[in-house]
Amino acid sequence: MQTDVTVYAVPVFILSLFLEHYFAKKEGMVIHQWKDSLASIGMGVGSLVIGVGMKLLAFTVMLYLYEFRLFELPMTTWWTWILLLFADDFVFYWHHRLSHQVRILWAAHVNHHSSQQYNLAVALRQSWGEVIYKYTFWMILPLIGFHPIAVMIMIGINLVYQFFPHTKLVGKLGVLEYIMNTPSHHRVHHASNVRYLDKNHAGIFIIWDRLFGTFQPELKEEPVVYGITANIDSHNVFYIASHEYISLWKDVKRAPRFSDKLKYLFYPPGWSHDGENLTSRYLQAKLVD
């Protein structure tokens, strides 16, 4: 059974890219810098290739874990799929949030944030390293009682949804801003502004950010500056995929104590044993002061 719904969405992704370019051009906007967009697409292709084996491995483990499920959840009923929709998105929120707060995970996830542009192509700038570890977060779902096929389908649905908020062409969407992850919310997530760092980790529903204190609205008085706090200015997909691992390795090597080496791996990005604290939480606290 084909569980990767993103495969069926590829023609929609391609059409959407061209439509975004067309409507942006009509408005006099240059929304794509094609070297950057091609690098994003290249990252997406690489992630897809690497992800084939990892998805198969994850699915196999899920099938094993499903034998020890706590509940019998019939996947033939509509309410089970609604439960799975929210359960999957809840798991995604924590996977995504920790990928910003644990540096060794950030070394993989930063690839997605490394573009200084913001368009639908950036949605395809998927990490090559992240697909190696991400499915471990979802192993709880078959243990609860969701069938692995349904879990993999829902992961794909969530990923397809996340493609569409990656655009500057759509403004705020009224009441949906309170519930859904919208283009406005996700623009904040891709910002390098101190106020916006590590906010809005939502996949489909922004409710998790509102509940767990990571929500930040897009402000008219503070336009989003896209990218990361130390931009790399490269369109080389191998460098995009590896640059933060290289920086992390250098920091681990120069740390004099073993405990500091571990802190570089597991503390938030920006932590240093001998320099200024540049973690997002510290910088935002200074901003308030």
Account of the 3D structure:
Helix 4 (103-113) packs antiparallel against helix 11. This protein has 289 residues and is an all-alpha fold. The termini are far apart. The chain has a domain at 6-170. 58% of the residues lie in helices and 0% in strands. The protein has helices at 6-26, 34-66, 78-101, 103-113, 120-123, 130-133, 140-144, 148-163, 183-189, 207-212, 237-254, 258-266, 280-288.
Beta-strand portion reads under 5%
Helix content: 55-70%
Uncertain segments: none
Number of helices: 13
Instruction: Output the structural class.
Output: mainly alpha
What is the arithmetic mean of pLDDT?
Answer: 95
- Radius of gyration, rounded? 19 Å
Shape: globular
Q: Biggest sheet: strands, sense, closure?
A: none
The sequence of SSEs as H and E is HHHHHHHHHHHHH
How many β strands by DSSP? 0
Distance between the termini: 55 Å
